[in-house]
Amino acid sequence: MRKDADQAAAPLKTPADAELEAALGYTFRRRELLTCALTHSSLAYEQAVTPQPARTDAKAAPRSPKKKSRAHLEDNEQLEFLGDAVLGLIVAEALYRAHPEMSEGHLTRLRSALVSRKHMAQVAQRLELGRFLRMGRGEERSGGRKKAALLANAAEALIAAVYLDAATSDAPHDGLVAARDVIQRHVIDPSLPALLVEAASGPNIGDYKSTLQEFLQSEHRGQPQYVVTGQTGPDHRKRFLVEVRIPDSPSPRLARGVGNTKKNAEQEAARRALLKLRATPLRTPTSSGDAA
Question: Closest Cα partner for 150 from 75, 243, 206?
Fold first, then answer.
């Protein structure tokens, strides 16, 4: 009787679910995990503050929030936390096994590039994940389905959902097997060849700060400086805004970058600065015009 009741309460498979599963290459047994992975906190908040109709049947009993099952989480934030850890482990293992000839530094930079929020947003875009997200009206109106940070979070939550769905008490290792297949297919294989080409051309793959420093030195412009100009969010989800500047330059500010750590924000600022400088090369210090 209890099993039948649980099945009746479980979310039904929709055509959108089937489409996403086909693109992902994985079919969920516990549909509530897929639903949770696709649910942004804005929708969970709206549902929480919307009054629900009172039950009138005599058997209805108050439910303690402490007894809420993790199978019925409202949004994908906790799944994102788990997915980030699973992603990092599997990418590191895949690189370690596939490229034993590489130094620790090269492997670290490759891993950082593959698990970065920028790259995970690209993974989500290839899956067209934005079309499947469940979000509140305000987030929808603000263009949430195209926001890189939101897409990256959902991609990590989806990885965690696959991991949890495939793992069973009899075969807990199946979770890693299923997650590894999804990560290999969608995170590693589409991007690693280009990263390896970049790695073969120099030591600074993914290290835009070092590349920018070398570029500026070749132009005889000195050392770049990174300045934190703002930060937002709670302590566990900080977002930093960083500017990269060239001191004593007619146009000192080169570019800005945003990241969940100061280091990531600096790397993003350096990456944007390189794109700008390569499109419009710097003049030498003896020139009378602006730097960029």
Answer: 75
Tokens of 101: 């000839």
Q: Which of 32, 75, 84, 165 is catalytic?
A: 84
> Which residue type does 235 have?
D
- pLDDT tens, the chain, 292 aa long: 444 444 445 567 889 999 999 999 999 999 999 999 999 998 877 776 554 555 445 444 444 444 444 444 479 999 999 999 999 999 999 999 999 988 887 888 889 889 988 899 999 999 999 999 999 998 999 999 999 999 999 999 999 999 999 999 899 899 999 999 999 999 999 999 988 877 766 555 667 888 888 788 877 777 899 999 999 887 777 889 999 998 877 778 889 999 888 888 898 898 888 888 877 654 444 433 333 3
156 noted as active-site residue: yes
Say which of 156, 207, 243, 266 is annotated catalytic.
Answer: 156
21 classed as catalytic: no
Of 160, 134, 124, 152, residue with least CA distance to 44: 134
Extract the tokens encoding 130: 């934005």
The CATH code of the domain at 208-279 is 3.30.160.20
Task: List, in sequence order, every residue forming a beta bridge with 39; answer none if it has no partner.
Answer: 134
CATH class of domain segment(s) 11-47+72-200: mainly alpha
Question: Where do the CATH 3.30.160.20 domains begin and end in the chain?
Answer: 208-279
For residue 240, what are the β-bridge partners?
231, 259
Rounded Cα distance between 230 and 223, Å, is 22
Q: What stretch of H or E contains 275?
A: helix 262-279
Pair 262, 228: CB distance under 8 Å: yes
Nearest partner of 75 among 17, 116, 118, 32, judged by Cα:
32
Rounded to 5°, angle at Cα 131 from 127 and 137: 145
For CATH 1.10.1520.10, the residue range(s) in the chain are 11-47+72-200
